[in-house]
Amino acid sequence: FSDTGTKPPESGVFGFMINISALLGVITMYIRYLLIEKQNESSHFVKSSCNIFSLCIGLMGCIGMGIVATFQELSVPSVHDIGALVAFGSGVVYITLQSIISYKSCPQWNTYFVCHIRMAISVISCIAFIPMIVFASQISMTKIDWTPGEKDYTYHFLSAICEWTVAFGFIFFFLTFIRDFQ
Q1: Does the pLDDT at position 75 exceed 70?
Q2: Three-state secondary structure of the chain
Q3: How many separate domains does the chain show?
């Protein structure tokens, strides 16, 4: 994922867009938090502390995105990797918690179909997150231009597939909020 924005001028665009995405994530998560609080006033389907915890986990993920954007993969790889781990790990926990909260709000505030879609995205993201970490931890060098047959190429390739799967999982998950926000 970060390979797409390591060399200038792409690195500047990548960092800027990741920071914009993190900001939009914060706004979306906060609106979702407020929506659940408002719905919960009449329905009492979830503890307020669970909603706050979910928001905090989500905000941690956005901070991780900011770290990824600020510390480029080749410049400061250890900080970049910690940021990525926080972003993806917190993101997976956030969407899983939101899926559970969605089920608790059924059928008054959500349809079971939307809940099933959210949970499916969460499960796929969780499943992809684990091998992403495993494969990434097997890579012994930090570089950008990989060629097939190179040492660690397979680990890099598989890790990248899992990383993109989780990233798109987050995008599709947030798209399921459209109806809730109307």
Answers
A1: yes
A2: CHHHHCCCCHHHHHHHHHHHHHHHHHHHHHHHHHHHHHHHHHHCCCCHHHHHHHHHHHHHHHHHHHHHHHCCCCCCHHHHHHHHHHHHHHHHHHHHHHHHHHHHCCCCCCCHHHHHHHHHHHHHHHHHHHHHHHHHHCCCCCCCCCCCCCCCHHHHHHHHHHHHHHHHHHHHHHHCCHHHHC
A3: 1
